[in-house]
Design a protein that fits this description.
By secondary structure, this protein is α/β, with parallel strands linked by helices. The protein has 15 helices and 20 strands.
Length: 442
């Protein structure tokens, strides 16, 4: 198999299982010391991380300000600031009829965790969950994503330089390695990726009744009310769709606009695409990530071809460069709802722009394609916002902006049903990676 044999995997697991009680008994200061050590190594190797992300995905070079790096540092800082409080028993009122002297909840570690990193954010979505796993007092076996080999190798170096294998171990490899890891009777699995793979992870976890956190995706809609400023909403849509070439679980998957707004919305969105991604009519590839591999390039191309064949019109973009896996930012209108682009999560730089006459049209489509990870509502009307919230379901919602429900450290983040199971970030991640143990003292 890949980079480690079955006996090696089993040895690591046995080592961590034997060590999980000792890690459980660590106090807040000891866990904080681990997080500070990790933080320092990340800061020291910022340029290498930045370069690795560019090499693997052609992500924009931003140094210490790179969003993948900043999200991890932010998660570390939040845990450092909050861990003493998070670890305290949570006292709850005792029911008078039971006569208890003391009732409280202890947050104890789940034990040995298995962490699978995704390919689209291969650094941040390995290390941010790892921070929560460590903060909660667990041990962990980490598998970075093999589709980003430069980031995977660097992530492995960082983990090995900071942690003892009995606390945090890292193994590199592909699908055969992942399947071998899923045979281990670990206590918890944390996976970020597609719903299809999420089902496979959950089925494997069921064999040992292992708990899971699944951060998946879905068709995240942007819903625009009448009276919104077309300049504002078009700019938000373009920014929310084409970041990382749309390879982001929180990306705007498609936009709903009132029929009368369509023409001006398309004009402005096209102009914004030009300004953001083109120089003298040529695509500035340093501003647009490439597709991760040939398979995903062909998958997204298939969505585009199917939509056009069914009557959709490309009003901006549509060019493809298979040699370097680049798909230009593309806007489409008149997209049939039964086309594959409207049935499957796009996960690429295509943006269908849909129109509606009444809200029920939107609600039916959202219900038909599953509860999304995120929803973006643009309106100055409290009634409109409340009606959308009442008639839909999603993991999270940002009103009149993009992705801020994810950026807010005091809100839990996660999906629902098809878009995920469990919550992460800050104290919610700490609790997700903990067992809430109820204690009644009579």
């Amino acid at each position: 198999m890949d980079h480690i044999d079955i006996e090696g995997i089993q040895r690591i697991f046995a080592c961590q299982r034997d060590n999980r009680q000792a890690v459980k008994n660590t106090n807040a200061d000891q866990r904080i010391a681990k997080l500070k050590a990790l933080r320092q190594v990340i800061v020291d190797r910022v340029d290498e991380i930045d370069d690795a992300l560019f090499q693997d995905l052609r992500k924009q070079r931003l140094g210490i300000n790179h969003y993948e790096i900043q999200s991890v540092l932010g998660e570390i800082d939040t845990a450092i600031d909050g861990l003493h409080e998070w670890m305290k028993p949570e006292v709850v009122p005792a029911s008078p009829q039971l006569g208890g002297k003391k009732t409280y909840i202890r947050y104890e570690p789940r034990g040995v965790c298995l962490l699978f990193g995704p390919w689209n954010f291969p650094f941040s979505l390995v290390f941010a969950p790892l921070v929560q796993i460590i903060a909660a007092g667990n041990t962990c076996i980490v598998k970075p994503n093999e589709m980003q080999p430069t980031v995977s190798a660097l992530s492995a170096e960082i983990i090995r330089s900071v942690f003892d294998e009995q606390d945090v171990a890292v193994v590199e490899g592909g699908v055969p390695l992942a399947n071998a890891l899923l045979e281990l009777p670990v206590d918890h699995i944390f996976f970020t990726g597609s719903p299809a793979v999420g089902k496979h992870i959950m089925a494997a976890a069921a064999k040992n009744l292992t708990t899971v956190t699944l951060e998946l995706g879905g068709k995240c809609p942007m819903i625009v009310d009448q009276g919104c400023d077309p300049m504002t909403v078009a700019g938000m849509a373009v920014g929310g769709r084409f970041r990382n070439a749309g390879q982001l679980c929180l990306s705007v998957d498609h936009v709903w606009v009132p029929e009368e707004m369509l023409e001006v919305f398309v004009q402005i969105a096209s102009a914004v695409v030009d300004k953001m991604f083109y120089v003298d009519g040529e695509l500035n590839k340093s501003e647009l990530s490439r597709m991760v591999d040939a398979r995903n390039f062909q998958r997204v191309k298939g969505h585009l071809d199917d939509a056009v064949a069914r009557g959709a019109s490309v009003v901006k973009g549509g060019q493809l460069d298979e040699e370097d896996l680049t798909i230009h930012p593309t806007l489409l209108i008149n997209v049939p709802l039964d086309s594959t682009i409207m049935q499957d999560e796009i996960f690429g730089p295509l943006l269908p722009i849909l129109t509606y006459k009444n809200r029920e049209d939107i609600y039916r489509q959202i219900d038909a394609t599953g509860k999304p990870l995120a929803m973006y509502i643009f309106s100055d009307s409290e009634e409109f916002v409340e009606d959308v919230l009442e008639n839909t379901s999603s993991g999270g919602v940002t009103v009149n902006s993009m992705m801020l429900h994810y950026m807010e450290k005091n809100l839990p983040f996660g999906g629902v049903n098809q878009s995920g199971i469990g919550r992460c970030k800050g104290v919610y991640g700490f609790r997700e990676l903990s067992n809430a143990r109820s204690v009644f003292e009579a």
